[in-house]
Structure to design on (164 residues):
């Protein structure tokens, strides 16, 4: 028989705190919608990262090999192959045996859209004082989650900000 540590007593929550919480209860429908949007952005993030990288590799080498994709993203070959299979199902890439991976028109459009978002986020972060190297790293995550309205506000801010 294992010795169990005694359970800690929970602190009592004052009644007024509970009453206040009832008044400010979140709108569960709106919250569920926000969570859904975030899950969707996470799902799209992988597709966007892969299409952006494939576009870069195509520009540099004329094609993107799964080996190069895996190396650049720091993932295993099977992981990259699985992601490329998903890109094919989504109609974003094509590939041929013993050849590389190529973006379709839809894939190229996605890659360009992601590049534009990426540039805007980096410029915004730099405009508010974030060092360039940190802005580049942070933009990798932010670019996938920011709404079009927020992105437009970032862009407007950058255009109106004084040169530093």
């Amino acid at each position: 028989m294992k010795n169990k540590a005694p359970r800690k007593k929970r602190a009592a929550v004052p009644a007024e705190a509970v009453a206040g919480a009832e008044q400010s209860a979140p709108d569960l429908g709106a919250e569920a919608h926000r969570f859904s949007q975030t899950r969707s952005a996470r799902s799209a993030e992988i597709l966007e990262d892969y299409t952006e990288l494939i576009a870069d590799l195509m520009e540099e080498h004329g094609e993107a090999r799964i080996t190069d994709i895996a190396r650049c993203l720091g993932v295993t070959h099977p992981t990259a192959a699985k992601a490329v299979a998903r890109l094919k199902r989504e109609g974003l890439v094509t590939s041929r045996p013993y050849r590389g991976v190529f973006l379709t028109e839809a894939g190229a459009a996605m890659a360009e859209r992601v590049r534009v978002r990426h540039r805007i986020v980096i410029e915004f972060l730099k405009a508010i004082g974030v060092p360039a190297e940190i802005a580049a790293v942070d933009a990798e995550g932010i670019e996938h989650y920011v709404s079009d309205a927020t992105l437009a506000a970032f862009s407007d801010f950058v255009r109106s900000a004084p040169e530093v």
User: Anything to note?
Assistant: Residues 34-160 form a domain with the Arc Repressor Mutant, subunit A fold (CATH 1.10.10.10). The first strand starts at residue 93 and ends at 95. The chain has a mean pLDDT of 83.
